Amino acid sequence: MLLPLVMFACSPDPSPALLLAVDRDEDGEYRVAPRPIPELSDAQHMEGSLGHGYRGGRIAIELFSDDMGIRYDEGGRMDLDYDVIDDVAIPMDEDGLVLWTYYHTLSQVRADLNGLGVDTEPVWPIDFAYQPAFVGMDFTSGENAAYLGSGVHLFILLPDALPAVLPLAANPGVIRHEFGHALFNVLTAGDAYALAPYDESEDPNVTSKVRALNEGFADMIATLTLDDNDFFDLSLPSVTNRDVAADAVADATMYPENAEAYDPYALGTVYASFAWDLRELTSAEEAVVLVVAAVDAWSAEAAWDDTDRWAELLLERMTPTLLLSFFLGGGGVAFAIEGAEHSTAGLQLSAFALQTPARHAIVPSLGVWASYTPRPWGLTGELSLTRRAKSNDFYGVSTQLMRASAVAELAMGTRPMTVHLGVGPALTVSSALTEWGETDSERVTRADLGLRARVALDGPLGERLAWSWQVGAASRGVYNWDYDLGAGIGVQW
Ligand SMILES: [Zn+2]
Fold it and tell me: What does the alpha-carbon distance between residue 267 and residue 249 come to, in Å, rounded to a whole number?
């Protein structure tokens, strides 16, 4: 009588309808709740179409080999203790809760992204090692869940190094973050088991920069698919620097060229908070589709040494309306990437609406500009030349108007577009030649000091060129106001 009972207890239903897992509810709260995990065909041994789990095993990192090869020597088969009560699998220890949360989270992120048209299938299946041992490297000191790329394609789940409220390996945000690394690897290396091209770069700065974008992308996947800007708070409330809703702004020290001990998370959080700004203007769903598409495009360009290019490609994917609201909404102001510091100079062709005693006359104008933009401030100098002439049988009047202005500006936005809002003094020199009769003529010249205000947009055209567009007004003295609308092309450096 006892034996069948014991046998029964040892072999619970391998594919229960529901399993307990940590998940985010409709109301946004994280709690443990019964969840279906359709891909998990064997809950006891943690096997299913998303990958198989191994208990223990050894990860050997050959630090001194040419390719710094990482190898996983498979551990034992997983064997979870649980019982099924009213169709719900109840784990008998924390491991069950951690592992089902892990598998459920992968199942969810797969459904979420595939539902949005982001193809996650190349990632699957991905095996995982539960609390493996490490040989050749102290990996456990600060890690708790990780994705091993570089041809290994494996998740590892470790006990927490620091006491956490919720173990990081059971934190849906952390698991989605690690999945984000796997997706990044597939998007950039082209295949789950391929070695990523940037990993083979001779330049360590390239690898560091890509790591920063990789960390940022992993946070974007976690925050956007959960629609939670600070999933770390669940596990480690004391960690506050990963909240992507706080406006993280890049500075020069966040780039590996200028850092001694490089921290990829700082720049990564800048990228992720940039994506969160986009989420605030649209929706988490729309934002995640756009950030994945931008990584795809960045990877197609193989612009490994220019991760800011990813941000440009993201902006290129935004509709004009969205782009405008992005700048007006302040998203661009907060995000002043290092590479966005630039200066431009060039030729501008404009239409001037010149105030005349009777009305405004529309005349073409040729100008030059030079703009120095250290952000968030800028200084722009402009020089423009306009000619207006009229003659008939009785007289001829030809007026040249030269205007020089120096405008102090607020410069905001991000590459590929900078918005300039500026105001400053303008000096207009007008010189008119009036002719009448057979030989009579007189030249009148005057100078008027006034005010200049303009709104301009500019951005790069390839590596060296720049485009510019502006609308502005300038006064000659107090009462005469001229308006202009122009577009230009120049160089940037
Ligand atoms: Zn990471």
Answer: 8
